Amino acid sequence: MANATTLPNENLLADNNNNYIADAVQGHPKQLALLFFTEMWERFSFYGMRALLMLFMVQQLQYADVKANLIYGTYTALVYLMPLFGGIAADKILGYRKAIILGGVLMAVGHLVLAVPTEWSFFAGMAFLISGNGFFKPNISSMVGKLYAPDDARRDSAFSIFYMGVNLGAAIGGLLCGYIGQKINWHYGFGLAGIFMVVGLITFVIGQKSLGNIGLVPKNENGDAVAKQNQILVYVISLAIVPLFIFLFNHYTLMGKIMFPICIIATITMVAIAYQQEKEARDRMLTAIVLVAFSVLFWAFYEQGGGSLNLYTERNVNTFGFPAAAINNFINPFYIILLSFPFAWLWISLANKGKEPSTPMKFSLSFFQLGIGFFLFVIGAKLAFDGRVSFLWYALGYLMLTTGELCISPIGLSMITKLSPPKFTGMMMGFWFLASALGQHLAGLIGTLMAIPSESGETTVSAVDSLNIYSGVFMKIFYVSIGGGLVLLLLVPILKKAMHSSK
To answer: How far apart are alpha carbons 101 and 119 in whole angstroms?
Structure first.
């Protein structure tokens, strides 16, 4: 394990005397806490809104399941597509800090617009959220990576802790906003999410001085900061694309024609960049690209949580009278809160013994657990009484989905920061989120396979019939997930070798 006082310059916080700021809590730099709490409050707002989105469309706007799933897929795909551009803008023009602040402001505006109870506010608010998330999300993750040397064994542990902050905010936000939105007033729920986005933004602005030189505006070849006019141009573009997103919500069937070409072009570009590097850097970057490609399939299944599983919980799970929006969007982050520190401890403990699974192995394990989670949903459906699944089987299924997530999401963030060439870290982080975007789009399409006939926001089939539809698709997800895990398991030796000793 690398000592906090011996990190290399580019990954370290330095004070004005060039002495390293090595104060740490339980072996981690204290600046991790700043990023932890900033992300926690931002995720409160994001997942608080997400808890309401699907049920708001079906119950309040009375959209059919197919339309709601496709709009949800469009929204979440764009949310994860924008970080590709936000990462590039931070790397080349703004720096991480200004990108995070810009993103926070745009997201706060989006949440507050959603709180306005008018027809136009729904798509407009989501459009601001998409633009803001693109600048916020990839760059705060990249800053976590900059606190550690590439070979520091604490890196995966740090991302697991950071990920716990993500889910602490998500759990509280999903529970409170979900309950208030579904039980009291939808727009009150959206407004509460906006308040805590502002809290997260203030947290970062006040604490950013402790980050030393990390995340400042990048310099050009002459050593000068990027011109102000280029930074202003990014601010203008961040607003100019909002009407485009509103257009896409109104023409949601266009997303497939947009997503696939963008992903193909981005992948070709990343491969081309990889082949411009020296052999070791090239092999590492290509390994990252392969693992990113596999993550698309994982997210396509896992992200049913915000779409079809929201409706499934409402229609077919015994929640003891508690709002489905709150339950479904609380249970997963709650598990992560309980498990993040044990997982962080596990990776460090195994690393100290030389037995830590490689990153490709962790990815493989995530697929097996994902498949088992959906299989437990199927078992619950088989044992259901009168179309209502026992909360026990629902909770067990989500537990396996969560352990699978912990083996891929924080590990993937860490993987990007340690396998990417330093000057392309932000771009590769954006590529990671682009894969998530494609997965989100596919999640919406998969969700349409579970569409339940409805009128005026109410289903027109029995709970037993709707449960049969859901469980049939869950079983197919089980088969494909296990297959993906097996393929990755076969590739582990090849990918591990190509990582050149990186875990």
So the answer is: 29
Q: Is 108 in contact with 136 (CB distance < 8 Å)?
A: no
Q: Is 22 exposed, middle or buried (0-12, 13-18, 19+ CB in 10 A)?
A: middle
Determine contact, residues 347/160, Cβ cutoff 8 Å.
yes
> Domain span at residue 243?
26-498
Q: Is 5 contained in some domain?
A: no
Per the CB < 8 A criterion, the answer to whether 200 and 41 are in contact is yes
DSSP 17: T
14 domain residue, yes or no: no
Beta bridge partners of 225: 219
DSSP 14: B
Helices then strands, counting H and E runs in the chain, come out as 17, 4
Q: Which of 172, 79, 171 is nearest to 126 (CA)?
A: 79
Q: CA-CA distance, 439 to 165, in Å (whole number)?
A: 23
pLDDT in 10s for each residue of the chain, 503 residues: 333 322 333 344 433 333 333 343 456 777 787 888 888 888 888 888 888 888 888 888 888 999 999 998 999 889 888 877 888 888 788 888 888 889 889 988 998 888 888 778 889 999 999 999 888 877 887 788 777 776 776 776 777 777 777 778 888 888 888 888 888 888 888 888 888 888 888 888 888 777 777 767 776 666 566 778 888 888 999 999 999 999 999 998 888 888 889 889 989 999 999 898 888 888 889 999 999 999 999 999 999 988 889 999 999 999 988 888 889 889 988 998 888 778 878 878 888 888 888 889 999 999 999 999 999 999 999 999 889 999 999 999 999 999 999 889 878 878 887 888 877 877 787 788 788 889 989 999 999 999 998 776 677 788 999 999 999 999 999 999 999 999 999 999 999 888 876 65
Q: What tokens appear for 478 in the block?
A: 């089980």
d(CA 276, CA 263): 20
Domain count, the chain: 1
148 sits in the region (left: phi over 0; alpha: psi -120 to 50; else beta) called beta
Nearest-CA neighbor of 148 among 162, 138, 158, 139?
158
Structural domain contains residue 315: yes
SS (H, E, C) 53-119: HHHHHHHHCCCCHHHHHHHHHHHHHHHHHHHHHHHHHHHHHHCHHHHHHHHHHHHHHHHHHHCCCCC
Rg of the chain over all Cα atoms, to the nearest angstrom: 22
- Domain holding 200: CATH number? 1.20.1250.20
Cα angle: 312, vertex 77, 412; to 5 degrees: 95
503 falls within a domain: no
DSSP state of 10: G
